[in-house]
Amino acid sequence: MLGFLNIDKPLGMTSHDVVARVRRRARQLAGHEVKVGHAGTLDPLASGVLVVCLGAAARLSDEVMHTTKRYRAVVHFGVTTETDDGEGDIIEVRSLDGVDESAIRDALDNFVGEIDQIPPMYSAIKQGGRKLYDLARAGKTVERAARRVRIDALTLLDWHPPQAVLDVICGSGTYIRSLARDLGENLSCGAHLAALTRTAVGALRLEDSAQLDDLLAAESWDGYIITPRAALTHWTFCRVNAAQASVLRHGRAIRQQHQDAEQLLIEDESGALIALVRAKDGCWKPEKVFG
Questions:
Q1: CA atoms lying within 13 Å on the CB side of residue 217
Q2: SS3 for 203?
Q3: Considering the domain 69-196, what is its CATH architecture?
């Protein structure tokens, strides 16, 4: 097994829960242990696209995580919470005077592009060797350094006070909870994230995702496993002959072909993934070998 699964993560489940169930079923189908991981966690209260990596494709999780993400976010205005989402205790309730569809659209424009974003206290980011959510659960609040994130597009889909539905297209590392919080502060009314669905990770879309129960009940995953070429459409792929494939499989460089890409993924003549290589000094030097 080598490839990816596009799973619609159910509400209430952790990403770890999904991986554990997939790992158990993969072992049954393959008759041996299969390495299973995910490419970007989703909070239990979020649903949508969770990319699960199978076999050697787990070594491509970073490449998947750094693709563009898309979300459908429900933002509740006028109420701030400790966790910046609906799970936390309410901190403050404010008036929505002056907050209308036009004001929200104007505010959204301030968050498009590269912005500095302070991560929420309830996050897995480490500070001083401890995860922020562990500090938060211990009743501690610490200063967090702002992080540069990229938001490509923000669209208001619906507005039924006090909630707005947003379409968010963003880069890796963007916290939608922080976006909701900051949007509320921009409008001087406060806000928190009420619901979140991830609708795309790169080329993998929610409308093409598998339901977890269907996947676990299937007798074969032939129709579910997505090849690296299909999942990583922003990468350059190249096929090499058998002799070149053998050299790369042993971790040695081969002479660079005509492609100009600095990094690319190499397949053998059958289309099987061999290696991720970097072009240097006229050669393709393997950085990751998949077999």
A1: 5
A2: coil
A3: 2-Layer Sandwich (3.30)
Fold category of 237-289 in CATH = 2.30.130
The verdict on whether 43 is a catalytic residue reads yes
CATH superfamily ID and name for 3-67+203-227: Pseudouridine synthase (3.30.2350.10)
Please write the tens of the pLDDT for every residue from 251-274.
999 998 877 788 999 999 998 899
- Say which range, 51-55, 59-63, 189-193, has the weakest mean pLDDT: 59-63
Predicted structure pTM score: 0.89
Calpha distance 62→98 (Å, rounded): 43
| Count of C-beta atoms within a 10 Å radius of residue 194 | 20
CA-nearest of 168, 145, 147, 144 to 156 is 168
Which residues make up the CATH 3.30.2350.10 domain(s) of the chain?
3-67+203-227, 69-196
Q: Note the helical H segments in 130-264.
A: 132-137, 176-186, 212-217, 228-231, 242-249
pLDDT tier at 124 (50, 70, 90 boundaries)?
low
- From the candidates 43, 85, 182, 268, which is the catalytic residue? 43
Instruction: Return the amino acid letter for 59.
Output: R
φ, ψ at 149 (rounded to 5°) = -130, 165
How far is it, in rounded angstroms, from Cα 66 to Cα 62? 6
Q: Which residues contact 123 (CB under 8 A, 6 or more apart)?
A: 131, 132, 133, 175
Task: Please state the rounded mean pLDDT for residues 104-133.
Answer: 81
